[in-house]
Amino acid sequence: MGRLVVIEGLDGAGKRTLAARLTAELSAAGGTVCSTAFPRYDDDVHAELARDALYGRMGDLASSVHAMAVLFALDRRAAIPALRTDLATHDVVLVDRYVASNAAYNAARLGQDAHGEVVEWVRALEVERFDLPVPDHQLLLAPPREVAAERARARELTEPGRERDAYESDDALQARTDAVYRQLAGAGWLSPWTVVDGSGPDPAPALARLLLDGPG
Ligand code: TMP
């Protein structure tokens, strides 16, 4: 049975680049790897609705924290058979965003007092009720804010006219989400976590060794 490894982080943290580097390192070390990403905008109607809501094309839908969380959760629920097959046939299944995205963003959207309740609600819905495979390890990619801001500026140059969705364009929400992510990582929510500060040398070689040999 393969290991389910999740990459989490804010919008623009560099998750896709890390996934590609990790895939290369894990493969070079002889591991079989496959990767996937949530939301699956092109493959799932719930993800498609969530995207429309994030771009203001679904009336007031995005204003409901719980409605948005349910859409993202249903996307993952529909992916369970494929995830189980991937886990049975690979050493590592690498996932860009998973259930912790739902916990972190939706807790951050509500006041501090509701954080614990929302995080537990997401866990009960996705892990208990939907029986989603639980991650074996979660990586929080959390570069310093200047590095993330520089990356966002570069992205604006390479992808001019790219629209930012309702969460991406909300700096206060991003800062609160960062704080919830760090709490989840610190508490070892659902699995062991490794926090990766993507500003230093390439973290992929050491992470690949940890994921193939290390505990958790
Ligand atoms: P994306 O930027 O990775 O396409 O995801 C869109 C937004 O949706 C992003 O700001 C994170 C958020 N999100 C959730 O709130 N819950 C989830 O379960 C997922 C996968 C994403």
From TrEMBL:
Enzymatic reactions: dTMP + ATP = dTDP + ADP
Q: Which Pfam families match?
A: Thymidylate_kin
Q: What class of enzyme is it?
A: transferase
Taxonomic superkingdom: Bacteria
Instruction: Quote the EC number.
Output: 2.7.4.9
Task: Cite the entry's keywords alphabetically.
Answer: ATP-binding, Kinase, Nucleotide biosynthesis, Nucleotide-binding, Transferase
- Spans through the membrane: none
The terms describing its cellular component in GO are:
cytosol
Thymidylate kinase-like domain spans which residues?
7-175
UniProt GO molecular function: ATP binding; dTMP kinase activity
GO BP field: dTDP biosynthetic process; dTTP biosynthetic process; dUDP biosynthetic process
Q: Which HAMAP family match?
A: Thymidylate_kinase
Task performed by this protein: Phosphorylation of dTMP to form dTDP in both de novo and salvage pathways of dTTP synthesis.
Q: Which family does it belong to?
A: Belongs to the thymidylate kinase family.
Q: What is the name of this protein?
A: Thymidylate kinase
Species source reads Pseudonocardia autotrophica
